[in-house]
Design goal:
By secondary structure, the chain is α+β, with helices and mostly antiparallel strands. The chain is 40% helix and 38% strand. The radius of gyration is 14 Å and the shape is globular. The termini are far apart. InterPro entries: NTF2-like_dom_sf, SnoaL-like.
Length: 130
């Protein structure tokens, strides 16, 4: 099991943040531009924890020693069921330097966009404090 998955599944936000490289780039399923840096990525992940319910990983793709991993998940955003995948790339130090999230269906992606949009003031404040 990838350490990112383990941290998410137990809700350990400190461990999750410790897995991120300082220069990590987060690519959102609902925003055009990627978010560079550990502070904003960690804050977005905390926001996701507030938005998703019934989250669970259903599959993990990638060899344990690979730099690339795909973690397939299901969750709920409000009354919408969402299916998605976290694509991770780890650097030579074993830290995540790229995190790309894709989700479906469109109705759930729209719900996610709206829910995360409502969180973004708080996310920006958390990132600025880091």
């Amino acid at each position: 099991m990838h350490p990112f998955r383990k941290a998410v599944e137990v809700g350990d936000l400190d461990a999750l943040e410790a897995l991120l490289a300082d220069d990590v780039v987060f690519t959102s399923p609902v925003a055009f531009a990627p978010y560079p840096g550990k502070p904003i990525t960690a804050a977005i992940l905390r926001g996701v924890f507030r938005v998703f319910t019934d989250f669970r990983y259903v599959r993990e793709i990638g060899a344990p020693d690979s730099q690339d991993h795909a973690l397939v998940f299901t969750a709920r955003v409000g009354d919408k069921e969402i299916n998605g995948c976290d694509f991770l790339h780890v650097n030579e130090d074993g830290l995540i330097d790229s995190l790309t999230v894709m989700v479906r269906p469109l109705s759930a992606a729209v719900a996610l966009s709206e829910a995360m949009g409502a969180q973004f003031g708080r996310i920006a404040e958390e990132a600025a404090r880091a």
